Protein 1
Amino acid sequence: MIDNQGLISACSAIGAGLAVIAGIGPGIGQGIAAGYGASAVGRNPGAKGDIMSTMLLGQAVAETTGLYGLVVALLLMFVKPFKA
Amino acid sequence: MMSGVATGLPMIAHEAESPDFYVHMLCPLKFFGTTVYITTTHVCTLIVFVTILCIAIAGRRSVLKHKDSPTKFGAGVELAIDVLLKFVNGTMGKAAKHYINYVGALFAFVFFSNISGLFMLRPPTADYGTTLCIALISFVMIQYAAIRYQKLGYLKGMFEPIFFFFPINVVSELAVPVSLSLRLFGNVLAGTVMMALYYGMLPIFAKIGVPSALHVYFDLFSGAIQTYVFCMLTMTFVTDKRNVEA
């Protein structure tokens, strides 16, 4: 028989797993940015430094939403905000 | 436990056998009736400060003493200053000279904090208290630049394109420090958790050699990228607020 605390722990673990699905979006976004960065370097190899820094900045901003999901997952797993 | 979240996520260990990436509380202090703790974050921040101070004093001595024939260390310091000047000038243009000290200090602190995981410390930036503080400093600077250089136009800009967009514009201003701090915190914490899981969960033969590659990625690469992004975004926001002719 499962008790209340066990149910809450199980649901927290499932919720953490669902929260890190947020990583899909930033993955796609960073891939698109990297692809366009590569094609830009192919067209204009002289501007590699500028392209690189712009691309990294855009990727880091796109990564933020994924990190929100990660923080929520870590909260659910390790801080355990819900008590029976 | 919710109060623990509000005061900077001091994930306290629940079970002894769980991997060790928590902030540890070292020594309790009575402070106006409430108990606060000296944590590992404070100790590591202090170590980072002392390291930066030593490097800065040694660099100053080296540059001033060997003016004609710089040593290797002195040449390295001058190269770093050159790179910083180029970085700030390229992003901020005319305003660079007012902000270069702040950006340099921010860069040094965040970078040394991020790579302190290499030296067995718990990175201070993996505590939400630290990143929220430096993001709030940047936020105050951004708002000060906006109010000083746009004056009433800033207030007017809040009601654009139409007056009931005011709450949305306020939220978009307030989202800046939240996203700045959470980005840095999330990246560094993710690296710390990954390293702790790796060290805590695998048998001994897997801990020889392989972790060095992980350290290079999570501590050096990720730390350097996030430092660059934090400084770059601060400078971009400030320049954005200064340059609007409205």
Protein 2
Amino acid sequence: MYLFLVSFDPIKPDAGLIFWTTLIFILFWVLIGKMAFKPIAEALKSRANDIQSALDEAKKAKEEMANLKAENDQLLQQAREERTQMLKEAKDTKNQIIAEAKEKAKANANKIVADARVEIENQKKAALAEVKDQAGLLALNIAEKVIKKELTGDPAQEAFVSQLISEISNN
Amino acid sequence: MRVNLTVVLRYTLIFFLTTAVSHIGAQDHHGDDAHATSSHGADNHGEEHATNACGGSSHHGGEFDAGATAFHHISDQNIYNIGWFHFPLPCIFYVPGEGLEMFSSGKFDADAHGNGSKAYNRYVLFGGQAKRITDPNFPKGLIGIGDDALWEESATVDGKKVDKVYLCYEGNRILCDPKSTLDFGLFGGGLTSFHDFSITKNVVSMFLIVGLLSLMFIAIAKAYKNRQGMAPSGIQGFIEPIFEFIQEDVSKPFLGDSWERFQPFLMSLFFFILGLNLFGQIPFLGGSNVTGNLSVTLVLAVLAFIMTTINGKKDYWGHVFNMPGVPWPIKYLVVTPVEIMGLFIKPLTLMLRLFGNMVAGHMVIVIFVGLIFIFGKNGANPAAAWGTSIGSVFLTLFMMAIELLVAFIQAFVFTILTASYIGAAIEVHDDH
């Protein structure tokens, strides 16, 4: 086998390699640092922020949704209560109106009955007065005829009869 | 139910494919080396002690040196080998006083081991690495030097063992300088006559990975812009969890409110290291060992140190130089010196940890494959070689799986420690 007596070269610092390493590394650091590492770090940061804000917004939206739903429920509950209230009021009004109408009708009827009674009373009185008149006349005629036959020519008697009739009609 | 089945089938397929690829990769490794062994085994049989006219021998019969082979595989090179293909790379050399010189490493006309058969402008290629001929009498331009003209010898200089490369040209031993290194002789290197600023295998790998990462991340950034408010898709969806992992578990916990300021640095560190760690483990692509090279981890650690230091707040320096709540003799004799040492030890550990982990992973894989040649007596015992190869394939497979994990862990550890150091530097204490 070929024997290389080359000594341990990698441990000997070599100006040429030092020069090129420095040049290449600093170029890499400056150029790629500016063109890639910084923009990538910034992109990662802004993306992290975006994700965080998106999560926060989603959470907020969820909360808002929950609030809205609670509000809706409350409104619905209120509406229901209002409806019940309105129905109750309507029923009350109806009952009241019916009751009032009944009352009025009753009063009207009573009044009509009372009027009718008064009228009847009046008619009865008029009828009675007429009956009395007719009866008086009849009785007078009869009595006249009787008296004429018996008392023809007796003015005192006639005056007495007239007086009696007027007394009766005044009752 | 149908979707689940498809997903299960897909993952099973991916699993088998990856296993198969790793398997083939492992086989390719020793296949490649077996090829090398057989050709050189034949050479050795033909000419037992292949020496050139100058008495130097680049062929060594007998023992297989797994360590040296591993070192060769993990070294940076001026040529890019993928299997049997050699891609020439641009060579850029600087000689003090003579200036810069640029040419293609294709001029060296390298063989399978990266040994050039031609010299160009007093440079030669040995083991994939360019060496310089210091002799001013050596002619410039393209010179044919032959196949076995280069060899290496160990010498002791100032009590330290150093490998020296020689060229045999027209019967003369000519010393070739290795490139300068900045270890000040600590690891057998040091300043020599030239500096190598070439686009080497490691540099090409870095350009490739950084280019791919750039394209990928620009596409991802565009996807984020165009698909705003939409779920990620494709490569965007693949990278996002990794990106967010670093951002949420590294940047933010350590850097607090100022995490955005350091985000590009930490992301670049993580993906640069991860990309290169993974690239080095792809079979068939040359296994370039970039993050397992001290020069690379040194640059990253120094940058981490600079970022920590320039961003240090009053509280940070107060804790270093004047630790509150500690009696002054202990403070100035113990705590402050330890804290000051700590400032430098922190990046040093960063540098060594990544380097050590990656270099070890690459070496262990080469050495597991090398077991075949050790037990096979370097081609002399094919039966043992075949037997060992079964065990070796499984060990390599296991190691590759571990290395895949290590690639992610080391990239992550480097990034999280850097973040913690910067975090400590910018922290403001409320209590004082």
